Here is the input.
Amino acid sequence: MDIRILVRGITRVLIPCLPVLLQLERKTVEQGVDTLGKQGTEALLPQANKLWDKLQPAVRAKPGALEAVEDVANSPEDGDAIASLRQQLKKILAAPENGVLVAEVAEILAESKSEWDVTVSGDGNQVMVLAQGGLVNAAKGWSGEELAQELDRIVLERR
Here is the structure.
């Protein structure tokens, strides 16, 4: 499992929802809900809540990670804060004791039902696809055409 791809999926789902999930000061929560509405990502909230429930104990145990989450919740457009959050999440998920957490997070991301937003990332002969904000599939040795066919099949299946 490529941790970098999981972290991208996590941040894609969590960032718009963090102010609501953390229940920060009233103004920030209202801003978060407003942002969710404007981005059309209200549907992300149930998935973000599941992710946060799984990640929260590990994040709270790591002061740098908790600070990064709070920074992004307060400034969701800040690229430096987002980069810091991604780095902290990579450290958490790469820890050997968090193997079960990685599997649980991947499963939650695979359940995604929001708009299609596809990112394809490859390294050698392994390709991982993030779609709908979630991890859809991983394949070895697929050509571009085979990957396109598989994505078409998945899109039809999820509609």
Q: What stands out?
A: The longest helix spans residues 44-60. Strands lie at 119-123, 126-131, 134-140.
